[in-house]
């Protein structure tokens, strides 16, 4: 059974188990055409898309019941947070009521283009755009959030600089940036990394990995000026970096490796992530290699 056949079978199995819910197969509509087929499941007003890469891997290892249970859990979780979202929508035009929940997520400009059309996007850096979100809650390790629609900000009477400055500080509190190494990242999944924003942090390493304390959305922080500058202090000046996903960034001292070798490592890491199901299209951030210019205090694309 291939992935497309599995998607059709999964929809049938779900419909038998839940005759009052709806389920259908969704295929990519936009170029480039890929085999990234999804299945759509709906419970009341809650709709989720399940990418078949990870689901097919679960099926091969654990069977169809495990996949169906995960879908049930996701629908229940999303329905719960959807109600919270509906409550928040009524207050989105009041800045004071949600300002402490605002945070920033980083998206790939191409893969996230359709999603970001109605959002509030602050700036684009080498194919990555920073987008304004509102935090709901974290349940069972899953982060509930909704994108702020641009029209909701019209009544705020706040400048974008003020809004994004507040959202940046919230982001650093919700997802505190941390530094780790490759061994810890791979073999200690519950390690939260080392805090580094304070001046007493020091390392002689030529290579480090930026994550967040809860290992979610850790790559966003590299695009914040205060974080980029702090890493520059730690690395002794300019540095290269590449995002392996929205969750982590690999950082290299400038004279220890070439951008070409970084890209080759990125390719290998990405291929492995896609192969084992640990990297989904939703978690992809960028395929570029960047350099932080400590003199100009800016990020530039080098490859």
From TrEMBL:
InterPro entries: DUF5688. It holds the Pfam family DUF5688. This is Uncharacterized protein. It comes from Blautia obeum.
């Amino acid at each position: 059974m291939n992935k497309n056949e599995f998607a059709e079978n999964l929809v049938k199995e779900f419909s038998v188990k839940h005759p009052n819910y709806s389920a259908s197969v969704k295929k990519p509509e936009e170029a480039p055409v890929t085999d990234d087929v999804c299945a759509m499941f709906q419970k009341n007003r809650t709709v989720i898309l399940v990418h078949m890469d990870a689901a097919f891997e679960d099926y091969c290892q654990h069977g169809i019941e495990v996949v169906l249970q995960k879908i049930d859990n996701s629908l229940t979780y999303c329905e719960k947070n959807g109600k919270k979202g509906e409550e928040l929508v009524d207050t989105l035009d009041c800045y004071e009521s949600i300002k402490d929940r605002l945070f920033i997520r980083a998206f790939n400009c191409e893969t996230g283009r359709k999603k970001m059309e109605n959002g509030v996007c602050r700036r684009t850096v080498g194919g990555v755009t920073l987008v304004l979100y509102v935090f709901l809650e974290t349940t069972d390790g899953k982060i509930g959030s909704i994108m702020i629609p641009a029209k909701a900000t019209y009544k705020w009477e706040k400048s974008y600089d003020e809004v994004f400055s507040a959202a940046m500080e919230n982001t650093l509190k919700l997802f505190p940036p941390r530094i780790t190494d490759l061994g810890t990242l791979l073999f200690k999944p519950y390690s939260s990394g080392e805090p580094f924003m304070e001046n007493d942090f020091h390392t002689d390493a030529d290579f480090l990995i930026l994550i967040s304390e809860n290992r979610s959305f850790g790559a966003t922080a590299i695009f914040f000026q205060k974080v980029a500058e702090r890493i520059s202090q730690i690395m002794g000046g300019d540095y290269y970096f590449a995002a392996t996903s929205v969750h982590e960034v690999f950082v290299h001292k400038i004279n220890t490796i070439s951008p070409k070798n970084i890209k080759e490592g990125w390719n290998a890491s990405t291929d492995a992530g896609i192969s084992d199901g640990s990297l989904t299209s939703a978690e992809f951030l960028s395929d570029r290699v960047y350099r932080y210019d400590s003199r100009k205090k800016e990020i530039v694309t080098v490859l």
